[in-house]
Amino acid sequence: MSSIPVTVIGGYLGAGKTTLVNQLLRQAGGQRLAVLVNDFGKLPIDEDLIENRDGDTLALAGGCVCCSFGSDLVDALRRLAARSPRPARLLVEASGVALPRAIAATVSLIADYANDGIVVLVDSRTVRRQAADSYLGDTITRQLREAGLILATKIDLIDLEARTQVRTWLEDYAPVLECERGQVALELLAGAMPPARGLSFAAGAPHPAYVAVSLEGLGACDLARLASSLRDPALGILRAKGILADGAGVVNALHLVAGEVEWAPTPAAHAGRLVCIGLRDQLDGPRIRLLAESCARA
Amino acid sequence: MFTLYRARRILTMNPARPAATHVAVRDGRILGTGSAEELSGWGRHELDDRFAGKVLMPGLVEGHSHAMEGTFWRYVYCGYFERMDPDGHLWPGAQTIDAVVARLQTAAAALADAHAPLSGWALDPIYFNNVRVVRADLDRVSLERPVGVLHASAHILNVNTRALQLAGLLRQGIDHPGMPLGADGLPTGELKGPDAMAMAAGHVGFDREVLAADELGLRHFGRLCVRKGVTTVTDLANLLPDAAVEMMLRVTGEASYPVRVVSLLRLQQLSGRALIERALALRAMSTERLRLGMVKLVADGSIQGFSARMRNPGYYNGAPNGLWYIPHEKLREAYRLALANGVQVHTHTNGDEATELVLDCIEEALRAHPWPDHRFTLQHCQLADAAQFRRMKALGMCVNLFPNHHFYWGDAHYALTVGPERAERMNACATALANGVPLAIHSDAPVTPLGPLFTAWCAVNRQTASGRILGEHERITVADALRTITLGAAYTLRLDGEVGSIESGKRADFAVLEDDPTEIGAAHLKDVRIWGTVQGGRVFPAEAQ
Question: B176, A99: Cβ pair inside 8 Å?
Fold first, then answer.
C-alpha cells in the first residue's frame, strides 16, 4: 500500500490556517483529504462542509474527514490510517505555538505516511510584530525556519510597499507564496519540504515566486471555450483548477496541468470557482479574470 | 451524642488555641477543641482514648498531585530512593542499572505468560552519573517479552529490543528528536517526549485505557493518602470525561473511601467557552468527597527537560529556550472567561518567562473582569524571582511551589539547567511568605512521592539529594511549613473555611501522628511516623489499608 502524503500546516493564531484548510477541503474535488487539528477550540471546519459528527471526528463532503488529536498525535495518526476508505492525503493543522518539524518527525515514524510538506502561514500584517514580541518572537522565527514554504496571507489588506517588505523579510527563511483568503492550490503545497529534509520545494526553483488568481461566483460556463482560452501561454498559467457548472448546469472539475486541460463531472456542491497559479511576473490575472467571466456569461 | 477524642497533643492551626488535649466530633464535624471539661458542655458523649498517645494535626492537604500515583503502583518500582507503596511496603531504592534490571528480572520470573509485557516506573538515570539506559540493559530482563520503564519525570520511556520490534521501530533511517540512535543506526530504546513514547507505550503495558479512569488506581491513591496523613488530595490535571467522572463519583462516594479528592479539569481540545461551561457543569456535580469545577492550564514545560520558558539569560548550559504549550491568546481568553464566570484557574508555569507571561495575562484579564477573591494559583512556578512574587501579591494570586523537586533535582539545576545563583532562588518559599503570597507546597506525585511532611522537610531544609543546602535564605520555619501543608494548601483550593485547621465547625479531618512534628526537630520532620487519619469523622488506621 502506498503511503499517505502529509502536509503539516503551521503558523500562529490568526495566520489563516483554518481558512486554508477549509479552502483546501473545498477544492479537494473527490480526493479524500483527512485533516488533523490540534488547537484549543472546536473543530474549525465550515458548517456547510460537514456531513456528520461522531465525537471528535467530522465526516466531510466528498469523503473527507477531520479529527482533533489533543496530546496523542500518534494514536490519531494510527486511527486515521486504519480508516476505510483510506485518506488520499493528510493535512495536519498544528497548534499556534507548535514547532511543525516536530510533528513531521513524528509522522515519519509511522510507515503509513510520508511527509510531503511543511507549510507555515503568516499574517502579512502582523508577522514582523510577532517576530519582535519578547514572549513569542523566537517561536515565530523557529516556525519560519522550519518551513518548506511560507504562505503569506492577508496580502490584500496591506499596501504594495509593505507587501514587498514583508515578502523580502520572509524570503530569508523559506520560499514565499502570497495568498488571499486561503486561495492556494493543493498541488502547490505538495512537496514543500524544507531543504534539510532532502526534498526541496518545486525542483529547480529554489525561490519560486508563485501567485494565484482565484475567482469565485462564476456562472455556468462554456467549458470547451474556457479550456481553449486557458491554454494560451501568454496567460502564464502553470496550473489551474476549477469547479464549474457547464452549459447544462452539470458541475465539473476542470484541471490544467502542463498545458493540457481536462474536465469531468464531479460531486462537488459549490460550483463557480477557478484558481490559476503561475509565476508572479508572468501570470496575467486581469486577462484571466476577463476571459473566465466572458465564458461564464456565454 | 458526640465523640470526645483525647490526644497527647492536638496542633490545631487555630491561633486562638494553638494546642489542646481534646477534640469533640459530631457527625463528621468538629464541635471544638479544648479540655475535657470545656467540651463536655456539648452534652452526652463517648470518650475515645485510642489517640491518647498520639499527636493530632489538621488532615494534611496535598495541593498538587495526580491520581496516577495510585495507578503506577501496579508497575515495578525502579526509583533510586526508597518509596512506600499503597500496602505500606517500603521499596528500597534501585541504585544501579544492575539493581533495576535485577528487580525487573524478579518481577518477570513471577509472570506466567512468557510474552506478557513488563512495565516499570520511576527510573532516574541522573543518579547513575547520567549514563543512558539502553535496550541492551532491558534485554537482560527478557528478549521475548516487551519491557518498558518509565522515567520519574514521566517524559521518557526506556524499552527493550522486543518492544521496539513490536512498535515497528527496530529499523534504520529513523529521524526523530525523541529517538536517539546507537552506533548501529538503530534506536537505543530511549523514547523521549509524548510522541516517541506513544509509539511503544501500548506494547509495554502503559495503555491509554489503563491510565484513564483507573478505578483500581484511585483506590490505591486513597490508601496511600491514609499512610501519608492526607485527608484532602488533588488530582490536578484530569480530562474528566463522563466515564471518569462517573467512576470517581462512585468510588469516592463509598463509605470507606478515605480522602476528599479535588480533581481539576485540564484544558485540551476545548475552546475557552466550552472549557468554562464544562467546569461549571462539573462544579454542580461536586460531592463532599469529590470536588470539581476548577481548571488547570499548562503554560510551558519543565526546567530539567529544557522545555520550560526562560527569561534572559536562559539556560546555564546554553540549551535553546523551551516551548510554549498554549497560544497566548488562548490563555488570555481562558482567564477572561474564567474570571467573568467565577471559575478558579490553576496554571502550570516552570520557567520565569512563563510565569511573567501568565502574570501579564491575568493582570490584563483582571482589569476587564475584577474578582477580588479569585485565588488563581501558579503551580510549580519554580524559578519566580522576588519581583514576580510581589506581582503575585498585588494581583491577589496564590502560589504552590515544589520543594520536593529541589531535593531530587536541585543538584542538576545547580550544575546544568539554571546555574548556581538561580538554583538557590528556586522554589522561593520564604520570599512568598515574606511578600504575603498565599503559599502551598507540593509533591506532584507520582513525579515525586506523595507525603506532605516530607515536602515540609524539603521546604524547611532545602537540602538536595547530594546533601547540599541550596538557597539557605529561602528556608522556612517548621511552623510555617506545617501551616502551609494544611491551611495554606486548603486556601488555594478554596477549602480553608472547611478544612486545614482543627476548629469548631470544620470537617473532622486529622492526621494522626506518633511523633510531634514541632518537637522532632527540623532535620527530622520527614521521619514523623504516621498512624493514619481521621477523615470526616471516620477513622482510618494506616495498617488496615
Answer: no
